[in-house]
Design a protein that fits this description.
Elements: E1 8-18, E2 25-36, E3 41-45, H1 52-59, E4 67-72, E5 75-76, H2 82-92, E6 93-96, H3 108-113, H4 122-138, H5 154-166, E7 172-176, H6 184-200, E8 204-208, H7 212-215, E9 220-225, E10 228-231
Parallel strand pairs: 3-8, 3-9, 6-7, 7-8
Antiparallel strand pairs: 1-2, 1-4, 4-5, 9-10
Helix pairs in contact: 5-6
The structure holds adenosine-5'-diphosphate and magnesium ion (MG).
């Protein structure tokens, strides 16, 4: 059942990989259930290989669970056709990864506006331009709109990736080790920025990190261990 007050709800989600060599199944996620309300923030920590990316990819509609249900904004993701799933991914979810995945030949502004290209309505186009300018100023990049990613520092590039993830006004922002390629000072700044944007934009945030001091900036911290998700 979907909880009407939850933006995201997982019910008994498991993920198994079948082995070709033996009858053994690799069970990465075991019976995970939790719910998040709009504008909440959580961190998920856990050692390398514990299944953090697997879990985030399932929530982000990039992967499907072996069993269990995922409800996003009242919709059962398993019931959606590929086309509808692509729409949910583009409009409701913002993704940030360890690598920024910016296009090197496009400017900062063009990179940020990439997710909006599928939306053909003219009024929306203006809104996106305004939103892009506002958010880029918000993260301190108002002087860099027409620069290319190669002209920016690692921290600046990752801030562009954050703005690109927010441009469609998603309800859910998923960040998979977004500080993995940054030094300590930039990592702390990035975690601080994500926590601030979570409040300012009222976007629900899941931060995956293996740094506990960054995780503690979120409202709740969960640990993934042996396939189970435990609040720590
Ligand atoms: P984390 O992000 O916490 O480092 P991952 O979610 O990337 O962990 O991976 C969890 C486990 O799932 C790892 O042991 C990994 O080897 C395994 N795994 C991921 N994808 C596959 C796959 N397609 N087939 C088999 N095992 C996989
Ligand atoms: Mg990972």
């Amino acid at each position: 059942m979907a909880d009407a007050t939850a933006l995201l709800q997982l019910n008994h989600v498991s993920k198994r990989y079948d082995s070709l060599q033996s009858a053994e199944h690799l069970e990465i996620l075991r019976d995970i259930s939790f719910a998040l309300r709009q504008a909440e923030s959580i961190a998920i920590i856990g050692p390398s290989g514990s299944g953090k990316s697997t879990l985030l990819n399932i929530i982000g509609t990039l992967d499907r669970p072996s069993s269990g249900e995922v409800f996003l904004d009242g919709k059962d993701l398993a019931q959606l056709a590929d086309r509808e799933l692509a729409h949910v991914r583009n409009h409701k979810i913002g993704l940030i990864f360890q690598a920024h995945h910016l296009l090197p030949q496009c400017t900062v502004l063009e990179n940020v506006l990439l997710p909006t290209l599928a939306d053909k309505s003219a009024p929306a186009k203006e809104t996106y331009q305004d939103r892009a300018s506002r958010l880029l100023s918000r993260v301190g990049l108002n002087q860099r709109l027409h620069h290319r990613p190669g002209q920016l520092s690692g921290g600046e590039r990752q801030r562009v990736a954050v703005v690109r993830a927010l441009i469609m006004q998603p309800k859910l922002l998923l960040a998979d080790e977004p500080t993995g390629a940054l030094d300590r000072a930039n990592s702390e700044e990035m975690a601080q920025l994500l926590a601030e944007l979570n409040r300012e934009e009222q976007v629900t945030l899941i931060l995956v990190t293996h740094a506990l001091e960054l995780a503690k900036r979120m409202e709740r911290v969960y640990e993934l261990r042996e396939g189970k998700l435990l609040q720590s």
